[in-house]
Amino acid sequence: MTVPPRDGAAQALAERAGRPLGALTVAEALPTDAAERTALVSPDTSREAVADLLRRPGVIACLVRAMGKSNEPPIGIITHADLLYRM
After folding, report:
1. Same domain, 60 and 83
2. pTM here?
3. What is the pLDDT of residue 64?
4. Which of 42, 52, 54, 62 would you call most buried, defined as having the most Cβ atoms within 10 angstroms of its Cβ?
5. d(CA 41, CA 74)
6. CB 50 within 8 A of CB 31
7. CA dihedral angle for residue 4, residue 38, residue 72, residue 50, rounded to 10 degrees
């Protein structure tokens, strides 16, 4: 299932590249500032620390990694909705 991007940026990118939207990779569709919009945490990070990170301007998610290091594969993601409804 293809979900249309909310602002059409990925669709416009696909059209400029002459490719269907479904042919774009995730890396191609991500905004250039995607890495700056996430914070890294470990599984033992406190709820308060996660809340503080998500309050930072521009931060939309926390990637959970085993030791909180960027060279590890992510094991989860925490968004504002998770903080409000699950934590």
Report:
1. yes
2. 0.66
3. 95
4. 62
5. 10
6. no
7. -120
Same domain? For 25 and 37 the reply is no
Number of domains present in the structure of the chain: 2
Q: Which of 68, 61, 67 is nearest to 40 (CA)?
A: 68
Please check whether residues 25 and 40 belong to one and the same domain. Answer: no
Q: What is the mean pLDDT of the chain?
A: 84
Output the six-digit token pair for 32. 């250039």
H or E stretch at 41 = strand 38-41
One domain, residues 11 and 51: no
pLDDT reported for residue 49:
95
Q: List 38's β-bridge partners, or say none.
A: 61
Per the structure, the complete domain to which residue 70 belongs is given by: 32-87
